[in-house]
User: Fold these one by one.
Assistant:
Number 1:
Amino acid sequence: MKTYDVVIVGGGVVGSAAAYYLKKNGFTGTIAIVEKDTTWQFGCTGRSAGGLRQQFSTPENIALSLFGLKLVRNLKQEFGPEADVGFKEQGYLILASDSGMPILEENHAVQMANGADNVLLYGDDLSQRFPWLVADGLAGGCFGLAGEGWMDPYSMMGLMRKAAIAQGVQLIQGEVTGVSRDGNRITGVTLADGEKISCGTIVNAAGTGAGALAALAGIELPVGPRKRYVYVFDCPAATEALHKGPLTVQPNGVWFRPEGRNFICGVSPEEHDEPTVFDWEVDYSIFEEQLWPVLAERVPLFEAIKVISSWTGHYDYNALDQNGIIGAHPEVGNLIFANGFSGHGFQQGPAAGNAVSELIMHGAYRTIDLNRFGYERIALKEPLFEKNVI
Ligand SMILES: Cc1cc2nc3c(=O)[nH]c(=O)nc-3n(C[C@H](O)[C@H](O)[C@H](O)COP(=O)(O)OP(=O)(O)OC[C@H]3O[C@@H](n4cnc5c(N)ncnc54)[C@H](O)[C@@H]3O)c2cc1C
């Protein structure tokens, strides 16, 4: 039977980062990533919009994002001169109506106290800075002056995974269908083809499959898929200023951003409208009925647009509070979670991976104190809400 000191289930951005930072931080034990889809086309990471922002309400989320930013800024030192993730540092612009403005101001204060570089804009400031935007009905917005934008998530994940493999991490293709537990220890996993692998520590980095994986060990984890659509559209009349503009979020959650010479957009549904079938079909009525009217009202240049493609992805959704769950299980101490990032896990992947490496190597956090993100709040059903979930 194969034996590894650390078995990481899931080789998306989080699992790849855990392996990468274990090696980078000097872990000398053996490590395997077990991944069922080695094309990486169905995981969250490859289907993410690749955004990175500091516009959160929770200090931990800001710190996790800043860690990812530092990695992007040092990409070539970290991975070599060819490394490129196409970071477009064009900012986020989160807009607010009168009722939302006090929350935006409160969040802005938390962000500035935690190292973000954002500015609040009111009324006419908005249309002066963004001439393509109609500010009617808005009290203001918060704009990322630096450190926010988007990149190619597939490339970022691949850089960490390949660097980890180059340093001896084993990539095993297979689906974990069984988890063996001896009292308060996980002893190993069983793959769909019957192969058994024993482990010292297991890391749950299974994305949307995290809840199902935990259940194999008899542990409840409220993380599962939530279907999301991203629409790519062409806007022939778009100005250069609009192409250079930020990822813009309307008070009702509708968002858009430039993507090459096109744009992408989406919205997270209300709880009662959440799709219940987790296939890959796209619902175009959402674009027609919920997105286009809102986009065209806010940006008149978007009155003449055409959807040219689209995709479906599934959020790794934490149903308790939409924040990451990071840390060891309080009783089953060799099971480490890095799950439930609910739409902001791409940018948090590197920091989450580093945090996992610190827990495995030192039994405590050294870089970012993520104790509040631990499983304990899940067990107690005491949510730690993030107000800025997009
Ligand atoms: C449409 C969309 C847009 C998004 N936009 C953003 C954004 O702009 N910014 C941002 O920060 N985040 C965004 N996200 C969220 C982000 O993509 C995820 O939070 C993040 O990628 C999670 O990474 P992960 O490694 O945990 O999961 P994944 O990338 O899904 O990796 C988990 C892996 O585990 C494997 N796996 C699962 N179960 C098993 C098993 N039993 N055995 C073996 N392998 C298994 C899967 O095949 C998968 O490859 C978005 C997500 C979606 C869907």
Number 2:
Amino acid sequence: MNILRKTWCRTYQGAFHIAQPLLPYKDPVVKNSINDIPEILRTNNINKVVFVTDKGLVAAGLAKRIEDVLSSAGISFTTYSDTVPNPTIENVEAVREIYKSANAQGFISLGGGSAMDCAKAAAARIAKPNKQIPKMRGILKVHKKLPLIIAIPTTAGTGSEATVTTVITDSKKNYKYPISDFCLIPPYAIHDYTLTTGLPQKMTSTTGMDALTHAVEAYIGRSLNKTSAANAEEATMLIHKYLYRAYTNGNDAEARQNMLRASFCAGLAFSMSYVGYIHAVAHSLGGKYGTPHGLANSILMPIILREYGECVYPKLARLARKSGVIAEGHSDEETAKLFIDWIQEMNDKMNIPRVIDDIREEDIPEMAAYADAEANPTYPVPRLMDKKELERLYYLGKTGNAEN
Ligand SMILES: NC(=O)c1ccc[n+]([C@@H]2O[C@H](COP(=O)([O-])OP(=O)(O)OC[C@H]3O[C@@H](n4cnc5c(N)ncnc54)[C@H](O)[C@@H]3O)[C@@H](O)[C@H]2O)c1
Ligand SMILES: [Fe+2]
């Protein structure tokens, strides 16, 4: 990246970093059971909601569990279950229409990041009826109080129930992008591990590694603060302790509940301190090919961390030691490299591939341009890369890093 653009990026990021203590972050209130839903709604004088979920959760019988709770409490609801992975503007607009025609007063979302993000974006459209989704792309473009959202994660994962972000795909352009604003933090989240015990192994592994990517990218970025560091360290510690346990035994209640906590902490960490190029590249792949978000991040994380090289060693080493992943007694460089090796081992033992087959060479310039537009100047990444430099990350993702 040329020096002028570098200066602009770092100045922009520095301004946000300085302003950070003044920004209106508000952690969601977290409850541990879906049986808490009626009480939350009563407290907020709400008796009519739109329930946003997806077909997989209907098939798994989990959507019915929420509907039963609502019916027993006499709360009227309309269910929308057509959310697709990498949710689209069409999904969001359909939910908005239902909300309007039902005269609803709030949202309940059940699912992974896709259903939760769909409800968040629909709530943004309700608050801003004259602003289309593409105009909300980027940061601080919504800026208005949203209707109530109760976010119920069924993957552990995205942490969307805690974050300032919703990620939406423009299916006409195969373009996926984040929308971030403080009002998008759901006021309520429910961490009920019984909703996650049936999560298939493949989803457990990749969504867990997505949470790790949030913690790592927030940590190595330049906008880390005390709070986000503590959250990223806790998330990494919990993932180290519980992800493989949840993967090998889906019914391990302690592991599942702690993975929900890990995902939440990692979400809080990156809400404050951003993600980085791993996510920007993963989003472009999700938009172009529908590559699952967690899968893309899992594969890209060790590759891109190695590509960053020595600029990430001190911070990665600190995260590795603080989270207990790597014992004391090694240099920063050794510790950071051991930490990256641990990530690769986790991927390998959970059968996550080492390359992203979806990537086609002819698409790389366009996707790199999207990643550039998403990340620069917003993400305070450890080393800045322009579009040309980002293209290399796609080649590495396609072929695997030689050092792997
Ligand atoms: N808003 C944020 O802060 C944020 C952060 C990271 C990622 N994201 C976004 O979230 C999306 C990915 O979310 P995800 O990885 O959680 O997956 P997802 O929501 O796309 O779900 C993937 C599949 O898993 C199924 N599933 C989910 N939970 C299940 C369960 N308990 N049992 C059985 N099947 C279940 C779903 O039905 C779906 O078919 C992407 O669009 C990504 O960009 C958002
Ligand atoms: Fe993510």
